Input
Amino acid sequence: LTVAGIDFGRIQPGDRLRIGAAEIEITRPCPPCKTIAGSFTNRKFTRVSHKTHPGWSRLYAKVLVEGEVRPGDAVEVLAR
Output
């Protein structure tokens, strides 16, 4: 999923989000790799490195509650 409107610099492993009817738990940052390099200008994919640019990396998550997610659905950060 690609989402906007929340401060990803504050999202940590263990945080839970509700997106549409689904609920997910963030498990860890997803390190950049050569697989995605072609998607970046001059193959400089380190811009999405959590170590060098926290809040700009991709994140792994597990699904806690299955449900339909549609474009424009609200993203809610749930209390721990």
